[in-house]
Amino acid sequence: METVKAFRGATTTRANTREEILAATRELLTELIGRNKINPQRVISVFFTATPDLDAAFPAEAARQLGYNDWALLDSVEMAVPGSLPRCIRVLLHAYHGEDSQEVYHVYLRAAKALRPDWDSDDD
């Protein structure tokens, strides 16, 4: 029986530009989907947050650029916590995906790897 799974990830940008935000988000989504072998037609919803220093584009636009026009997408601003990682985009994706026992890989790229070193995306 297929179950609903939640997939997390994060990345950072080099600058607050539309191009950087969209490129980093496309990279994050592509890696998250590929690493977990997610069927895009089984995605339920995707929630993006961006730190307050990223306001040049909506990360959800990157999903649409990848052709995911049927997904329920939502953007929000991350809490402004002193000392938190700057220029960070986070994602929480829900999808029907495999059996209960099937492993979930959370993807942290670029400087966001420091957020969850225990979930290092380079570990294979």
What does this structure look like?
With 124 residues, this protein is an alpha/beta fold. It has one domain (4-119): 60s Ribosomal Protein L30, Chain: A. The chain is 20% helix and 27% strand. The protein is built from 2 helices and 5 strands; from the N terminus they run E-H-E-H-E-E-E. The protein has helices spanning 18-36, 60-65; strands spanning 4-12, 43-50, 72-77, 88-96, 107-108. A 5-stranded mixed sheet has the order 3-2-4-1-5, with helices on one face. Helix 2 links the parallel strand 2 and strand 3 (72-77). The longest helix has 19 residues, at 18-36. 31% of the residues are buried. The mean pLDDT is 94.
Task: Give a nutshell description of this structure.
This protein is of the alpha/beta class and 124 residues long.
Helix content: 10-25%
Strand order of the largest sheet: 3-2-4-1-5
Number of helix segments?
2
- Mean of residue pLDDT? 94
Strand content: 25-35%
Order of helices and strands: EHEHEEE
Q: How many structural domains are formed by the residues?
A: 1
Helix and strand composition category:
alpha/beta
Alpha carbon gyration radius: 14 Å
Low-confidence stretches: none
Q: Report the biggest beta sheet as strand number plus sense, adding barrel if it closes.
A: 5 strands, mixed
Number of strands: 5
What distance lies between the first and last C-alpha atoms, to the nearest angstrom? Answer: 27 Å
Looking at this structure, what is the CATH superfamily? RutC-like
Reported by name, the CATH topology is 60s Ribosomal Protein L30, Chain: A
Question: Which class in CATH terms?
Answer: Alpha Beta
Task: Tell me what the CATH architecture is.
Answer: 2-Layer Sandwich
Q: Which descriptor suits the 3D outline?
A: globular
